[in-house]
Structures are given as C-alpha cells and as structure tokens.
Write a structure and sequence with these properties.
Order of helices and strands: HHHHHHHHHHH
Largest sheet: none
Shape: flat
Number of helices: 11
Helix content: over 70%
Strand content: under 5%
Structural class: mainly alpha
Oligomer: single chain
Distance between the termini: 94 Å
Length: about 280
Amino acid sequence: MTLIEHLDELRSRIIKVGIVFVLAAVVAWFFRVDIFKLLLEPAQGQLQGKLYVTSVAEQFVSDMKLALYVAFVVTIPVLLYQLWAFVAPAVGDLGRVFTYILITLASSLFVAGIVFGYVFVVPVGVQFLLSWAPDRYDTIITPTNYMAFVTRFLLACGIVFELPAATYVAAKLELIDASLLKRYRKHAIVVNTIVAAAITPSPDPFSMLLLAVPLIGMYELSILIARYVNPTTEVTAHELAREDEVGDRDDEDPAEDEAGEPETDGFEDADDHPENGHERDL
C-alpha cells in the first residue's frame, strides 16, 4: 500500500471511532443524572449528594464532561480494534482468533480496572482526603475538582490494568518472556511507583500508593501471562545452560589428551621399530 492509501485507511478508521463516540455521548447525556449520582457514591454521604458551583456555566460543563467521559469508556473496545486492525499488517499475520482474544482481553481489563478503582481505590482515597482535619477546614467541593479527581483516577486504574494485555502482545511477538520480566522485577517496582505518582490526579502520597499497589500486582500477573504464552522459554534457557556446561567440559578434555600424548607416542615408536633399538644396543 502507498502512503496515500495508508492515510485513507487511517482516516476511515478514525471516522468510525468518531461516530461511535458521538453516539455514545448522546446516549450518556440522557443518563447524566444517574452518572452524577453514581460518581458521588464513593464519598458515602460526606458531600450530601451535592456539589457547589462557582460559575454560571460550571454545572452544564460538568454534565458535558461526564457524558464525554462515559462515551470515551464505551468507545475503548472500538478504538482498540481499529487501532490493531491498522497496525496488524505491519507486524505480520497473527490470525483473526488472536485479534479477537486481544481486543476482548484489553477491553475486559480496562473495564475491570475501572470497576476495581470504583469499588476499592476511589472510596478509600476520597473518604481519607475529605476527612482530613475537619476541625480546621470546611469542605466546599466543586464539580470541576471532584469529577476531575474521580474520573482521572478511574481512568488511571483502567490504564494500569492494560499492562497484562500489552504483555500478552509482546510475548506473542516474542519480544519479552517471563525470565526477562523476573530479571527486572526490582527495577519494575521503582518504575511502577514513579508511573503511579505521575498518573494520579492528586499529588498526595496516599493516592500514589493506592495506585502503585495494583500496578505492581499487574506486573506480577504479566509474568504469569508471559510464561503461559511462551511456556518453553525457561526450559530452553536451562537446556542452553546445560549445553554450555557440557561444552566447557568437552573443551577441557582435549587439553588433557594432548598432555598425555608424548609418552604414548614414545612407546608406540619403540613397539613399531624394535629392531632399530636392538641395532643401537649392538
């Protein structure tokens, strides 16, 4: 395909994703009240079901952002499919079954990350932060601040849960294996902590830890996935190590043989020409 044909294909796939996104946003707009109440649940009544606005259009803009956020989450499977369909020819023919497995795995993990964040991470973080020093601070939370905190935190959890899907693709392409991930486990813990600090919407260390723990857990799950995709990698590594040891031993044997050759050759010469030795004695 020429460059123009690639650009034309990319344009058509972007249009498809855009159509799905717009339709999802329109549907989400009609359920904006339910979405608003759902995102207030992690506060568990501390905000009394309401948020304070400080500008004329803030409440309308907040509802628009909620609809767009839900549309983005719903569009993720379509976005992943169109993206993979565009780059798949460049990485070879891996089969239609692999494509379906990849899209299903990535979409399921993204949704699982959002659900995990909504059920476990966000409630703990929101309640902890809202309960901090109530005798010194009066809590007045605006939709811009609260919704941005919750939606970005949920989005970060969804992205964190995509690590096993990325590992599955890399292992399938034989770019990584379980032994490589194990070797750099300590480095990964440090990197994951830094990434958690970078993608958390709040600068406090408590929120960072809430996201760093699942991220490290996803790395450990990625090791298991890599071992499942390439089950013979570690066995092959052990076999290669044994072959190297055997090869080293074989290399040592000829030296020993060479050291013993002179005496043997002397006896052979004496046996092969006994008459020469007898003549010399005479």
